[in-house]
Amino acid sequence: MKKMLAAALYGLPLFATPALAADGPALFQANCSVCHQGNAQGLPGQFPPLAGRIGKIAATPEGRNYVIAVALNGLMGSITAQGNSYAGFMPPFKTLPDDQIAAILNHVAGLPAGPDATLFTAADIAAGRTESLTPTTVAEKRKALDAQHPLP
Question: What are the residue boundaries of the Cytochrome c domain, all occurrences included (predicted)?
């Protein structure tokens, strides 16, 4: 009874719905847009663009693993994206559930104009959690990947 009253007073749903976890656009807006902007175009010199890049990077298994590593462990150091240099720190988002991280990554992989991609699953994110990396190590992983498959 108290739960129902609290839900009614605060306009909260009584039960969490799985659809909320699968809402990539809303999750991106809530967790990523403050830096990468609402359209995932980034801010030149400050935050790299994601739109038009994540799907290309994730086209190889190594690229998919790298994207997952960034989402889970963050990234620290200098990178180049679309010919522009960025030096900074992206925080890890490992506190988010696996299905939410997958939904965010699928949303971004489909940008700028397409529907959400289906490249990442919650199981992929869970597998990525088995490798504990520092943000600096993720940057080193990026350099190795870029040497193997030039990143956009």
Answer: 19-112
From residue 1, alpha-carbon distances to 10, 17, 142 in Å are: 14, 20, 52
**30 occurs within a structural domain:** yes
Q: pTM of this prediction?
A: 0.84
Count: domains in the chain: 1
Q: What's the rounded Cα separation, in Å, for the pair 81 and 136?
A: 17
137 contacts: CB under 8 Å, gap ≥ 6 = 73
Q: Is 5 contained in some domain?
A: no
- Quote the CA–CA distance of 119 and 109 in Å, as a whole number: 8
Over its length of 152 residues, how does the chain's per-residue pLDDT go in tens digits? 344 334 333 443 333 333 345 699 999 999 999 999 999 999 999 999 999 999 999 999 999 999 999 999 999 999 999 999 999 899 999 999 999 999 999 999 999 988 889 999 999 999 999 999 999 999 999 999 999 989 99
Q: How many CA atoms within 13 Å lie on the side-chain side of 92?
A: 16
